[in-house]
Amino acid sequence: MFGVALTALLQQSLLEFVPGSLRTGGLTDANFRAVLAPQYLRYIWETILLSVATTVLTLVAAYPVAYALARARSARVRSLLLVLTLAPFFTGAIVRTYAWMLVLGNSFVRWPVKLLFEPSGVLIGLVHFSMPTMILILAAAISHIDPRYERAAASLGARPARVFWRVTLPLSMPGVASGCLVVLAWTFSAFPTPELLGGGRVKMVANVVKDLALDSFNWPGSAAFAAVALAVTLAVLAVMSRGLARLER
Amino acid sequence: MIGAVLARGVLVTLLAFMTLPTVVVIVASFNPTAILSFPPAGLSLRWYVNALTYPQFQRAAVNSLVVTVASAVLAVPFGTAAAFALVRYPLRARGTWTALLLSPLVIPGVAAGLGFLILAAKVGLLTSRWVLIVAHVALVLPFVVRSVAVSVANLDPGLERAAASLGARPRRVFVRITLPLLRPGLLAGLLFAVIVSANEFVVSLFISTRVTEILPVAMFTYVVNYTDPTMAALSTLFIVVTVLAVVLADRLLDLSRVFQIGEHR
User: What is the CA A47 to chain-centroid distance, rounded?
Assistant: First the structure.
């Protein structure tokens, strides 16, 4: 119990601190008004576009892997897929992002369009970054579907594609919804990927937070942006828990 | 039939996309020239020598070691207590506690980092390693709690009661019965704590100085300033250690159960 109380306390202090910092030098809403200034609004808009695109592409790319993982017949294959999924999940953000800098910015492969320091390159990096998370959530959801439903549909004459669209996909919707929302929330506050693959030309909300806090030492302004990111994350998660509760009923 | 081949092709392509960057980094790390060429002009370990002798990396490696060990040592007992409380005891507002414990997973890194930075400034610990350690404990706790909770849920309380009824004192029951039965969960939790802490970057960037910075932060600074493959060599070392740790965790605790993946059983 003591441990729980202590951790809760610890995390509570962490949560409450972001708005608390705005008190430095008296109350004002100037920081939040600054967030809406045209030069910053552009970054927020870019962040929204990149997050939505990342979520959609990640879902499409992750579903087949998750399906294979959930329905793998041999424990060996499942272990292999799981390690392939988890290794990037646990390999640090810096290592993974640096790897993409090498892939996108090397001199011997000529990409048809410029990718490094462009939104498209950031998008590739973000999808790669989100895939393991999405795979894990989807695979858990697909595992909960009783394979007998699929076999029943097939035995009644449904082709594999029809079984997928009419049985598997609808039954995995809770996983699809929560996977998309988690990825959306994470991507909205992504930092290392846009920082390194964007090279200062592509900026998302988290990069503005870092610029303001560590380069301009404008902590209150930076905290306002961080609060926006936090609010978006919590809002997305609130939608998720409410939606899941309804799906489970 | 064509469908099955197509499905396999898609799967292989996607797995290739996931592993491609790793392969490129490993190839680059053995490349003798500073500018990446393919096929490589030969094999060289010069970037590994560079990475291991660069003073700022050495200092950061020591910092990483201190922070990771300290946060794991603190997080495992707290996380175990929390896992027990969540699984065993009829807590009021169990959902809220669970959400609080798991919240570091979802709170944006920049928000947490900035929060810790401001907190550290207020208590005058801006240049202290303790800020890093406290932040890392909070960040690794969700992983410890989840791993240990699996073992706690599998632990039959009857075994503990049997030992107690045979006259064992609570402490003896805990040391001789409970701890050994929890070992897989504890080890996996410890392993996760070490992996997550050693790789943490965003929060650490905000709360470290040039003196206290951990390895991922030093690597970030290096990438921003230099382009030679020294980073590729260091990344390869990171990747190898991480893959080994994940395989080990899978052996210990059958990860498909931690993430609830697989057939009904």
Answer: 12
Chain B residue closest in CA terms to A213? B114
Most B CBs within 10 Å, among A71, A80, A95, to test the B interface: A95
Angle at A168 between CA B102 and CA B259, to 5 degrees: 25
| pLDDT tens digit sequence for B161-207 | 888 888 888 888 888 888 888 888 898 889 889 988 988 999 899 88
Q: A1: closest CA among B150, B71, B147, B89?
A: B89
d(CA B217, CA A104): 22
The closest alpha carbon to A192, from A61, A53, A98, A88, belongs to A98
Domain range for B109: 22-31+40-253
Q: Assess if residue B157 is contained within a domain.
A: yes
Burial class (CB in 10 A: 0-12, 13-18, 19+), A243: middle
B244 occurs within a structural domain: yes
Q: Where are the domains of chain A?
A: 32-248
Question: What is the Cα–Cα distance from A53 to A31, expressed in whole angstroms?
Answer: 29
Look up the CATH number of the domain holding residue B238: 1.10.3720.10
Q: How far is CA A118 from CA A195, A200, B95, in A?
A: 11, 10, 42
Chain A closest-CA separation from residue B166 CA (Å): 27
Question: What is the distance in angstroms between the Cα of A197 and the nearest Cα belonging to chain B?
Answer: 11
> Before B39, cis peptide (omega within 30)?
yes
Task: Give B54-107 pLDDT, tens digit per residue.
Answer: 999 999 999 999 999 999 999 999 999 988 888 887 777 777 777 766 777 777
Q: Read off the pTM.
A: 0.81
Count of domains observed in chain B = 1
> Complex ipTM, two decimals?
0.78
Which chain B residue is nearest to residue A214, measuring alpha carbons? B206
Question: Is residue B11 assigned to a domain?
Answer: no
Q: Which residues of A82-110 are buried (b: 16+ CB within 10 A; e: fewer)?
A: bebbbbbbbbbbbbbbbbbbbbbbbeeee
CATH class (in words) of the domain with range A32-248: mainly alpha
| B195 found inside a domain | yes
Residue A87's SS3 state is helix
